[in-house]
Specification:
The chain has 14 helices and two strands; from the N terminus they run αββααααααααααααα. By secondary structure, the chain is mainly α. A two-stranded antiparallel ribbon has the order 1-2. The termini are far apart.
């Protein structure tokens, strides 16, 4: 009886944490977003139409700051900012500040990459890390690569109204559900606070026309929070941990892979801004951002559900399901990169710039292959200033 009572109580605490985080973040966002729109308009902090941007008039930025502030407020009110999560949320604030500056004045991709890698190292230091079992060096590398890739994948996903926020809220539900099942109060609160904040933000972001964008100041910390939540709920699962974590960020990773493969096949530099992402290809078939957002939500929800179920079954189920998801992703890339689905870039190449500019003609990145690959990913995300 005592054991059963304890389990019931822990389950109720998980549900309470999820509900409280979700509700408080929704209410907070309904206050912070209108305030941030007013500030952005007063400060002329606007995303103006140019090149491959799809919007027709100047749109306020600072949506990311509004979303993150709502998450922080909810986490603080519910006692979820302590220990390692204080470090994690501090890193989210730092990336929000860096991204917001980049929305205003171009920040060289190498500095963004260094900041993201530093965040990965900081998370590793406080125990939010992968534990693959092959030594701390490999664990540190895997943690840093995970953070950098997911941050830039969400940055790239911010390319159409509602795309990034919709995927983030769906990822948050999956990660928060697993955190609740693991009786991790802090992770549950933060995951559902992120879900609530991004869901509420859609009221403005998916309006027709959109009334506010996340900007890099939103997509970067959102990607980082998804990455750190993935570490919190799968990092202790050994070698299967990174495989399970990837399913919780499946669509942003698929989008990055799709664009990389498509541009390679066409002989177009990866570091090119354009409207050839997963969301743009779906837009051509579905006809509207809201339909695209709903489709993205359903697919990511399916991936997250599979990840949660397989985590409860065991490592073998995670490995098998990951292999199946990988094969499905490869099939999706093959289908979406046909002439029926392919979209024009409508852009010019953007490459590793000197500190004052984003435009260049070539990418030359010194250093080890892993670091070169990560910097190219950061440059590609930097080039994608679509601000959806």
């Amino acid at each position: 009886m005592p054991a059963a009572y304890a389990c019931t109580r822990e389950a109720m605490n998980g549900v309470a944490g999820a509900g409280a985080g979700l509700g408080m973040a929704i209410l907070a966002t309904c206050v912070t977003v209108p305030a941030s729109i007013a500030v952005a308009q007063r400060a002329d902090f606007l995303d103006r139409p140019r090149e491959y941007h799809g919007h027709g008039f100047a749109t306020p930025l600072l949506g990311g700051a509004a979303v993150l502030f709502a998450v922080l407020l909810s986490a603080a009110a519910l006692g979820a900012i302590s220990g390692r999560w204080a470090v994690a949320l501090g890193c989210a604030v730092a990336l929000c500040a860096l991204g917001t500056r980049d929305d205003r004045v171009a920040v060289a991709p190498k500095w963004r990459l260094l900041a993201e890698a530093g965040v990965g190292a900081a998370l590793f230091a406080v125990g939010l890390r992968f534990r693959i079992g092959a030594g701390d060096g490999l664990d540190l590398l895997a943690t840093i690569v995970w953070v950098v890739v997911v941050v830039n994948a969400f940055n790239l996903m911010d390319n159409l109204d509602g795309a990034c926020a919709t995927v983030a809220l769906t990822c948050g539900v999956g990660l928060g559900t697993l955190a609740a099942l693991q009786h991790d109060w802090d992770a549950t609160v933060i995951a559902f606070a992120l879900t609530g904040a991004t869901a509420a933000f859609l009221r403005w972001n998916l309006a027709s026309p959109s009334r506010q964008f996340l900007g890099d100041g939103g997509s970067m910390p959102i990607g980082m929070l998804i990455a750190v939540l993935g570490l919190a709920v799968t990092g202790h699962r050994g070698a299967s941990g990174p495989l399970g974590a990837c399913m919780y960020a499946g669509l942003p990773l698929l989008d990055t892979a799709l664009v990389s493969v498509s541009r390679y096949r066409q002989g177009v530099p990866l570091v090119t801004g354009g409207r050839d992402h997963l969301s743009h290809r779906l837009l051509g078939a579905l006809g509207g951002p809201k339909r695209v957002a709903l489709t993205l939500c359903l697919v990511q929800a399916g991936l997250s559900a599979v990840a949660v179920i397989c985590d409860r079954v065991g490592a073998g189920a995670v490995i098998v399901s990951s292999a199946i998801v990988l094969l499905g992703g490869l099939a999706a890339i093959a289908m979406l990169d046909t002439t029926r689905w392919r979209r024009p870039l409508i852009a010019t190449a953007v490459t590793v710039p000197p500190p004052a500019t984003r435009v260049g003609t070539a990418v030359t990145v010194p250093g080890p292959p892993v670091l070169r690959a990560l910097q190219v990913a950061a440059v590609a995300a930097h080039a994608e200033a679509d601000q959806g």
